[in-house]
Amino acid sequence: MKKPDLKKLKEVDFKKAAKDFVYGKPHGERRLGDLYIPKTGLYKHREWRGIKDTMYYFNNIWLYNYGMIVRDLMVYGGGPKGAIQFLKGTWRYRWMGQTYLTVMHWFDRNLEGMRGEALRGSAWHFRGITSACLLQITGWFNRDLNIGGDAALRAKTIGHDETLWGGIFYPYTDQGIENIPLQMIPYFVTCHCNNHTVLNYIDASQAYGLPGDPCPMCQAEAGIFIEDDVPDSYVALITTNEACDGSVGTSVIQDWMINKPLFAMPQPMQFDDDSVLENCAKEIEGAWRFTEEQLGVEFHWDELVKRLEQQNELQRFEWEKWDVAANTNNYPINGVAQALYRIFQSQYGDRPLWHDVDKRVKKIMDKCVEEKINTFPMTRHRVIAWSCAPLYYSAWCTWAYNCWGLNTIINMDSLMFDMEIRTDSYENCLLDMAKYHEWAPMRRMAVGGLQHIFELWENMEKFNCDMVMMYDQLQCKGMQGVVGLFEDEFRARNIHAIWMPHALPDKRTVPRSQIRQIINDYMFTVMGEEPLDPSLLDFDDIDSW
Amino acid sequence: MRDLKHLIYFEDLLQEANNDLVRKGKEDGNLCLGYTCYFMPEVLLDLPGCFSVRLRAPKCTSPDMASYYMSGRTCHYGRSLLERALEGGYNFIDAQLATETCTVTCRFQEHLGYMDDVINNSTFKTEFTDVPFKKNENSIDHYRKQLKLHVLDFLEREYGVDTSDEAILKAIEINNEVNDIITEIGNFRKLDNPTITGYEFSVITLVSMVCPKYLIVDKLRETLEELRTREPDDKPNYKIKVLLAGSENDDPDFIKLIEGCGALVVADRYCYGSLEARNHINIEEGDDPLTAVAKHYLLTSQCARFMEQKEMRNRKKVIADYAKEYKADGIIVASNKFCEYWSYERMIDTIILPRDYGFPVCSIEKEYINTASGQLRTRFQAFVESVELKKIQEVK
Amino acid sequence: MKRKAKKKRTVGRFIKKTLRLGVLAYAGLFCVFYYDLDGKLLYYVVEPFLKNHFDNMERRDPTTVPYEQIDSEYM
Fold first, then answer.
1. Residue A544 falls within a domain, yes or no?
2. Inter-chain residue contact A293 with C73, CB threshold 8 Å
């Protein structure tokens, strides 16, 4: 038997070790990077966050969410039959089988190093997103003719582009219809959860002749249809031109592969001009007529009003959150949770689960404000993230805080859909719905004139940020078309901005390690700062989810 | 074939955007109005006292300054336009009538409006028009309103241009004259043995877009008369006839490159081509001139940005119908690198046109200026050979 | 009396056994959590297996999908 090294044992500060055990190591001493198994992103062991937070993570996040996933499957899926459909779907669709089983690691990546109320508030956001995903997944599978789903349910289901706001279908939700965003689950969320899957879809598009330079998001969206990896759960679909030329291009491929009745509901580009609203409103009415024709339903004004009022409630709470984020250091939600929850919730539309999550988050946030809890105490810089984010590395915000104290307060996509919708009359309601749709994610700032993309400056001020993380989506023509002017403006305004190159879902173009290296270089050389956790500076996670 | 009398003159006019006729048009006291996209109806920019110039950046092979502003990962055409603007090449434009119809040309035009000193012309302004993605009643109505607000009202308010119905009718008249001449010239391409080459026709079409119409129309008419009696070569110097479809192309040398490989370009269904762009503008009974213009430009366009299902599916048939009408043996689908719309459209055309319409397709990606491309030459030569072989086998 | 006491003992034993099992299960789950055994199982076993399955799945040839006009009054 090996003798214990007494010399080393004597050097151990037991008091400190006990304190670390009880409270967790303070930020600055953590060495989170040492926990990784090289290349995989797996942990040798999960982080010890002190007794309270570790047990909270184990009980209220890890165990709770695994349990709630089973519960959601049974409740949303309608009992054992739903569970069987789920298993069939898992076997049939790559985006399900290869992706979503790894969901708890998604929580892990995004919640690394977090403590206290910030851990709790952020985790609830992920719980909301997971639940909404399961609602859609069970919705897909229960109706899917490819795996023996219910044809009657399918007959009451309409598919639509994920960038088409789900609220368009509010007038029919009391008539047993379902609207399913076509790409949200097979594409969008997969990239965050397990970015391996999406690469198959990008490759599929290119295998049939699509060049490599269009936006990889649109390539992937086309790819899931080319690969025949989309359930046959709907009778017709509605498409939109949001967010860009590539989305329009994808529609051509999707239309061909889906081969079902299609209604196009494009939005005007020059949305500052109020004269475009009428056109947009009429297209919404056209989408309603199409839905009624295809699904055999009627327009219910009262239902529309009810759902919009509920949605307005979600919007008012979002503003409350922005207010706390902008003006205090008590905001208990990290950058990635803020971004993903907001984009998912506002795009998918009102659902009861969002209200449940918001209630819980409000309680946590109120506590933070009342007790003046500094939720991200090691913040060195308040960061605003601008343009479209790398989907395969949305967790960069968590890493950047842990490594450098860069706290991402708000991001561009969160600021879309920034309005309440009037319900006092049909006309006002319709015009507001049109405006709302024109202000969709990836679009509100990106089209309709350069002045919108430069709203960055006022938002920087509003959210009290001193630094910009400038996403540089290499294949986004709209953003690439304006890089020089941004450079000029950053220089003229003396703003610290880090350009983060990426290719949205495709990690092969700019690996995550390269993104970290770019941030590290800027922080060392331009800011002259030292990392809070040097173990996070350089690690190999090339094959991780 | 005998050389066309004015061809060299036309070619000279394409050497720079601010050509002799543009200068003459300005000297005559006219406003010069720039545009890039078919959706900005040139007829409204040809109102009395104005003339339209569809912007080009001839010979721009290395847009270095523009690549700083728009990166090297955007369409070469959009960047070349900005490069030319930054060089001072568009200072002669009095206003840019812009559209947000494809991302990169939109960004180029936004730069013109945003950067104070890029166009050195005190009267210069940029005005954007919203263009719908559909061809339904709602879209026509919307488009008409936009043209009224952002073209007619803008020109009247800022430059005192007469935008009355009479003025629009006059502009339609001169445009129709040019449209009819070009269409008639283009019809010679339908002959079994065409009496005009694709290159010549592309030069003629382009000059009609970049020069004041009243200054070029006589020479176009003369060319048409000349073509009526032009005899084809006894032995055709081409091996096959092709239709060229795709994204923006204002480079006649690209057509020359294709024809140098033995494929005569007999139809031009691309951005800056004549097909649809040179259709006669009709005014239906009950429509005012502006409504007629809105309908014409929206309904004739076969742009890849239209999203209605029937339009998406029909435009493949339109290409096939043109190929049949112009007796093409094959179709070349060319998209500019970084062009999002045509990347997808080309992909589907490449599969559907041979499968459903029986036309062999050569699918290529190109740059804005391509003359030195050996790679493209190889592709075209191989395509010509394969179509030729197919034809021989069919005869057997 | 004896029977009652026996029953009590049996119930007590059952509760103890259940509690013990519960504690063991909880401790086991904590180990799975702490040592990221769920992640390791998914990464090294489940994902490669499913990936292999999906890679070898027979799929429709997309180029055979028809491309004709579809009618609807409102499209």
1. no
2. yes
Query: For chain C, which residues make up each domain, given as ranges?
Result: 2-54
Q: Return d(Cα B230, Cα B238) in angstroms, integer.
A: 17
Is this complex's ipTM strictly greater than 0.90?
yes
**Residue of chain C whose alpha carbon sits nearest to that of B135:** C75
pLDDT per residue, tens digit, chain B (396 aa), is 899 999 999 999 999 999 999 999 999 999 999 999 999 999 999 999 999 999 999 989 899 999 999 999 999 999 999 999 999 999 999 999 999 999 999 999 999 999 988 999 999 999 999 999 999 999 999 999 999 999 999 999 999 999 999 999 999 999 999 999 999 999 999 999 999 999 999 999 999 999 999 999 999 999 999 999 999 998 999 999 999 999 999 999 999 999 999 999 999 999 999 999 999 999 999 999 999 999 999 999 999 999 999 999 999 999 999 999 999 999 999 999 999 999 999 999 999 999 999 999 999 999 998 766 789 999 999 999 999 998 888 887
Q: Does B314 touch chain C (CB under 8 A)?
A: yes
Q: How many separate domains does chain A show?
A: 1
Q: Which of A241, A447, A482 sits opposite B307 (nearest CB)?
A: A241
Starting at the earlier edge strand, list the strands of the sheet with B31-35.
B50-54, B31-35, B95-99, B125-129
CA A12 to chain centre: 43
How many residues are given for chain A?
A: 545
Which strand (E) or helix (H) includes residue B316?
helix B309-325
C: neighbours with 3+ CB pairs under 8 Å?
A, B
Separation CA B41–CA B52 (nearest Å): 9
* Interchain contact B350–C (C-beta under 8 A): no
Assigned CATH topology for domain B234-395: Rossmann fold (3.40.50)
Residues of the domain holding A48: 32-536
Contact A263 C75 (CB under 8 A): yes
Alpha carbon of C53: minimum distance to chain A alpha carbons (Å): 8
Contacts of C21 (CB under 8 A, 6+ apart): none
Task: Look at residues A506, A543, A229 and name the one whose alpha carbon lies nearest to residue C55.
Answer: A229
Our CA-based measurement puts residue A222 at a distance from the nearest CA of chain B, in whole angstroms, of: 9
Smallest Cβ–Cβ distance between A101 and the set C33, C34, C42 belongs to C42
Q: Which amino acid is at A444?
A: R
Other C-beta atoms lying within 10 Å of the C-beta of residue B371 = 12
Whole-model pTM: value is: 0.95
Taking the Cβ of residue C63 and every Cβ of chain A, the question of whether any pair is shorter than 8 Å is answered with yes
CB < 8 Å to B309, chain A: 255, 261-264
Q: Please tell me which residue of chain C has the smallest CA distance to B312.
A: C69
Contact C67 B356 (CB under 8 A): yes
Asked if residue A59 is part of any domain, the answer here is yes
**Identity (one letter) of the amino acid at A269?**
M
